[in-house]
Each structure stands twice: as structure tokens, then as C-alpha cells.
Description:
two-stranded antiparallel sheet, binds iron/sulfur cluster, Alpha-Beta Plaits, mainly beta, 4 strands
Amino acid sequence: MIRGTIIVATDICKACELCITACPQDCLEMSPNLNVKSYHYVQLKNDTCTGCVNCAIVCPDSAITVYRQAKSAT
Length: 74
Ligand code: SF4
Ligand code: SF4
């Protein structure tokens, strides 16, 4: 199994929500907080990310970086 996580460049996000629609794990949500451009930005809402990279591919502003690591056997 692959476990993933993402880092969002919050000040680049424009709240288009394309990444939320593209995520097969339903692990993204809009933050109630605003970035420097006064947009709500995307954040992880749980730890079910598999690192599939869909969110990073669809983001028109390349605001998401995906990291993957093998899940431990334990
Ligand atoms: S890498 Fe895949 S599973 Fe993880 S947040 Fe992005 S779309 Fe969702
Ligand atoms: S696709 Fe990119 S710009 Fe759009 S909401 Fe997601 S992180 Fe923000």
C-alpha cells in the first residue's frame, strides 16, 4: 500500500475546487480561513490520501505537491 500526503501552497490557491472534485479518496476540503488573496484554500481533511497525484495534475496553478511513501507492514 502507498500512503500519501500533500502540501498546498496556500497563497497560490484560487479556490476553484477542481482538486476536490478530482480526489478519489474524498480527502480534500476548503479551509474556512483565507489566504493573502482572500480566497479560501484547500487542505487535507483526513489521512486517506494515497498519493495518486490527481489533485496536483488538475490544479491550474500548480499549488499542490504530492508526497508518497510505502505504508509500514505493521
Ligand atoms: S494525491 Fe490523490 S488521494 Fe491524495 S489528495 Fe490528491 S487526489 Fe486525493
Ligand atoms: S485545484 Fe489548485 S487552485 Fe483549485 S482549489 Fe485546488 S489547490 Fe486551489
